[in-house]
Design goal:
This protein is mostly beta strands. About 15% of the residues lie in helices and about 45% in strands. An eight-stranded antiparallel beta barrel has the order 1-2-3-4-5-6-7-8. A hairpin with an 8-residue loop joins strand 5 and strand 6. It is globular, with a radius of gyration of 17 Å.
Length: about 150
């Protein structure tokens, strides 16, 4: 019985170390769906401009507790409804205050740059560059609170 429990625990650890990727993700299921989002989280959604596609659809769940975690789904759009490439990321959110403004820096991994958002208000995040500057183009880089 002890050996069986150890095997179950080892499998659970391996599954937890899968870097946010699950069998559901491979099947194209949304890992940050509203019903399975991080407990006690705020979920933001929106489509931002992209150079080589119709846009990038984001679904971002940010934990509102001491874990400071996030879970994000990014989907490149071929049209308003057809997704081509989908990626999932999760990690820690660094909260930065600069010049009286609050920013979320999402740590995407050791070899990847962070994705940064300006907190405009209680219901809107705006994607900004690595220097925490808004896009000069005037295009819409906002994610709106869904939950």
């Amino acid at each position: 019985m002890k050996k069986m429990m150890m095997l179950v625990a080892a499998c659970a650890c391996l599954a937890a170390c899968n870097n946010g990727k699950t069998a559901g993700n491979a099947a194209g299921q949304d890992s940050v769906a509203a019903d399975s989002a991080i407990a006690d989280s705020s979920v933001y959604v929106g489509v931002t401009p992209a150079a080589d596609s119709f846009g990038i659809k984001y679904r971002l769940a940010v934990a509102n507790d001491s874990t400071k975690g996030f879970s994000m789904r990014q989907a490149y759009l071929e049209s308003e409804t057809k997704e081509s490439e989908v990626s999932y990321n999760s990690g820690k959110t660094e909260v930065v205050t600069q010049n009286g403004k609050t920013y979320y820096k999402l740590q995407m991994g050791q070899n990847s740059p962070s994705v940064n958002f300006l907190v405009l208000n209680d219901s809107t995040l705006r994607m900004v560059n690595s220097e925490l500057q808004e896009a000069a183009s005037g295009l819409n880089y906002d994610l709106k609170l869904e939950k």
